Amino acid sequence: MSVVNEKGYDFGNICRHCDQETVQPIECIVSGTIPKWAEGSYVYNGPGITKIGKASYKHCFDSASIIQKVTVSASGSASYMSRFLRSQAYKRNMKAGTITVGEFGTAPHVPDSEKGFFSKLRKMTDMESVLSDNAVVSIVNIAGKHYALGETPFMQELDIATLETKGRKSLYKEGGLMTQTPHPVKDKAGNSYIVGQSVTLTGPKYSIIKFPVDGSSPQTIAKLPTRWRLSPCYMHSLGITENYIILVEMPLAVSVSEIMSDMFNNLAFIDGMKWHQESVFVHLFDLRTQKPVRKKFTASPMFLLHIANCYEDANGSVVMDFPCYADSTVLHEMYINKLREPKGAKNKEFCDRFITSITRLVLPLNDNDSRTEIGVKGLPLSTTASFENPLVNPVYHRRKHRYIYGMGVSPNGADKGQVTKLDVETGEVKMFMEDQLYIADPIFVPRPGAADEDDGVLAVVCVRSDVYKFGCLVFLDAKTMTEVARVTYQPQAVVPMPMHGLYIPNTLP
Ligand SMILES: [Fe+2]
């Protein structure tokens, strides 16, 4: 049992230490009725191990990945299991009994024998081992294979049945990437795309990588220049419409020289990132011509992690909806010590730093407009709810949507999370909350053949703030946001709060 935080939202729940897997599936308790069409596996990635030996990870994005899975079988029964991702970083760290591979906010432990100049120099010639392959962020399906992804250029292939790590693909080797967006987007044909930062002879570039739906090798389809010559901008996501890929260049600069220097000196990478209170640039890449669009769009400074959906409207403009922060402060608020510390009366103030507003950018693409730079204004669609991990019904990807779903802290900072449905046409908001229930990544499963956009279930994976060895997957009617079924599991191990998940129907491998 944990200490109940009666004063408010307990951010410690998002960075729990879990040092035990649940490799043998355990039976879950199922209440209510899970629709037949929502049976399958719900697989999640996120931070698990927060300390190794005497060393602790510093940032919420650093902890060693644990993959969790809830499987709902055709008989209606359900099971839960988990397994640590066997990355090379995990194996090296476990063997050494300490953190030997640097992460976003954590410096590696380096033995004295490797602190000399030449040792450091030798290390820098082997980026494959300097960059961590702890792919802790998401789980994705690319050309029928399932991968765990993080922000470094490695894709860890998973066996979804056993959750074993099958091996890694290196986009550093195959595409020269140093980073990648862990949220690929798919075009109508099923090809997947990510963007990453690569370093070329003429400086850093944004490389757009295409993963063909037929499973053939990834292709670099574009290398786009960065706004600052030696400082590309941080990107966690990219957008896609029917015809365009959308890159948002936020003013969070990643200094290549500082990052290299940090690596050389065994420091954490986050120190090489600097926020500049300058405009956001939005770039479009035309999938038909395979060329960047000449027009560039600018908007007031803002920060985003995820994009809910993008589409082309009746005027041919590109519309993009996303949760928006004023700046990148939130990244610096996610140090584990900071998240875990009791905040007392300041809890609500801390919660407010995680509040976003769903914002819309409309990018006009009128051929008669000869301007090459067009200023656009972010339109707030909701300021009454906190949204992260935004999503729409997947049938509406790249199409005009009406409803956006997302999770976040409770509206008044109380000891619970919430999941919200926003009607972007009326502004109406519907929420699901329960005391001590902390909601992670929502997943929308549409009812087959549904006519209404919100006809389906929203599967929300949850932990409780008062019981650590407990988790549940709650199925909500996506129309009413009321509970229709719940799968509850109580393993022998701590259940960490996942970051992102994927639904895999029983009909798929
Ligand atoms: Fe993410």
What would you note in describing this structure?
Belongs to the carotenoid oxygenase family. GO terms for molecular function: beta-carotene 15,15'-dioxygenase activity; carotenoid dioxygenase activity; metal ion binding. Its cofactor is Fe(2+). With about 500 residues, the protein is mainly β. It has one domain (about 10-470, about 475-505). Helix content is about 10%, strand content about 40%. Strands 16, 17, 20, 21, 22 and 26 form a 6-stranded mixed sheet that branches. The radius of gyration is 22 Å and the shape is globular. The two termini are about 35 Å apart. Residues about 1-5 have low confidence and may be disordered. The structure holds fe (ii) ion. Fe (ii) ion binds next to loops.
Sequence-ordered SSE layout with sheet pairings:
Layout: E1 22-27, E2 29-32, E3 40-49, E4 51-52, E5 55-56, E6 64-72, E7 78-84, H1 88-96, H2 117-124, H3 127-130, E8 138-142, E9 145-149, E10 154-158, E11 165-170, H4 171-175, E12 185-186, E13 192-200, E14 203-211, E15 219-225, E16 239-240, E17 244-249, E18 252-254, H5 256-264, E19 273-275, E20 280-286, E21 291-292, E22 296-299, E23 309-312, E24 318-324, H6 329-332, H7 336-340, H8 347-352, E25 357-363, E26 373-375, E27 379-382, E28 388-391, E29 403-409, E30 417-423, E31 429-432, E32 437-446, E33 456-464, E34 471-477, E35 482-489, E36 500-505
Parallel strand pairs: 22-26
Antiparallel strand pairs: 1-7, 2-35, 3-6, 3-36, 4-5, 6-7, 8-9, 9-10, 10-11, 12-13, 13-14, 14-15, 16-17, 17-20, 18-19, 20-21, 20-22, 23-24, 24-25, 25-27, 28-29, 29-30, 30-31, 32-33, 33-34, 34-35
Residues 137, 183, 236, 305-306, 500 line the site of fe (ii) ion.
